[in-house]
Amino acid sequence: MSNVRSDKPFVLAGRTYQSRLLVGTGKYRDMEETRLAIEASGAEIVTVAVRRTNIGQNPGEPNLLDILPPDRYTILPNTAGCYDAIEAVRTCRLARELLDGHNLVKLEVLADQKTLFPNVIETLKAAEILVKDGFDVMVYTSDDPIIARQLEQIGCIAVMPLAGLIGTGLGICNPYNLRIILEEAKIPVLVDAGVGTASDATIAMELGCEAVLMNSAIANAQQPIMMAEAMKHAIVAGRLAYLAGRMPKKLYASASSPLDGLIK
């Protein structure tokens, strides 16, 4: 069949990953819960807010890299808490220094504290500077297909449209825009923000996303370690369902067993 989907590896900046779940490191009760939840998730990429988390810039304080060593995890520094391009670029350069020349970053430039919606104008500015500066930029953005296209043209290695506002757990609020982005993009598309539970992650993968990034859905669950494991399975289930291709929806019933040849 010509419409059969074949799987392809999940590749970022030339490196192949087995897990399609990326997780954040904030909002946990303590370092031990962080470690256990991330282990349970099976994630290989963990994102770290450089402006809020110590990865070596504050000597003498607990260092996240002690429990999430870079030889085991790919550390994805992010620019959470930045509200303009200048701040975001400075934060990425600091992260590169702290991580010995590490170029993979997650760019997010926020518009305001109430919505944490991306400021796409400042995001585009920062992306252009960072790409020219040799960074491999994964970028948090709105679910606007035109902005996603422009970020790809600038040279970002992945676009990460929000499913819902950060930390809301509302799930995928606009699957139609996501479908347009997925149809047009020639780079990985990852859902970032808004996932609340395992079914949200599965839906994102069923739409065709290459991966999902989440933090609050796990860290704010009543049992974060258990939710982390649920998310691991949800991502796998969603990917398999996408590859398998769902049955068409029908208005009327269709018998599971054929009616022809029934004993009379």
Features:
264 residues; alpha/beta; TIM Barrel; three-stranded parallel sheet; 8 helices; 10 strands; 16% strand; globular; cytoplasm
Topology, pairings included?
Elements: E1 10-12, E2 15-17, E3 21-24, H1 31-41, E4 45-49, E5 74-78, H2 85-98, E6 104-107, H3 120-132, E7 136-141, H4 145-154, E8 158-161, H5 175-184, E9 190-192, H6 198-207, E10 211-214, H7 216-219, H8 224-244
Parallel strand pairs: 3-4, 3-10, 4-5, 6-7, 7-8, 9-10
Antiparallel strand pairs: 1-2
Strand order of the biggest β-sheet: 5-4-3-10-9
Structural domain count: 1
Shape: globular
Share in β-strands:
15-25%
**Main sheet properties:** 5 strands, parallel
C-alpha Rg (nearest Å) = 20 Å
Class of secondary structure makeup: alpha/beta
Q: What would you give as the CATH superfamily?
A: Aldolase class I
What separation lies between the terminal Cα atoms? 37 Å
| Mean pLDDT over the residues | 94
What would your notes on this structure say?
By secondary structure, this protein is α/β, with parallel strands linked by helices. It has one domain (10-244): Aldolase class I (TIM Barrel). The protein contains eight helices and ten strands. The chain has a five-stranded parallel β-sheet. Helix 1 (31-41) packs parallel to helix 8, helix 2 packs across helix 3 (120-132) and helix 3 (120-132) runs parallel beside helix 4. The longest helix is centred in the C-terminal third of the chain and has 21 residues, at 224-244.
Short description:
The active site is at 106 (schiff-base intermediate with dxp). The protein is built from eight helices and ten strands.
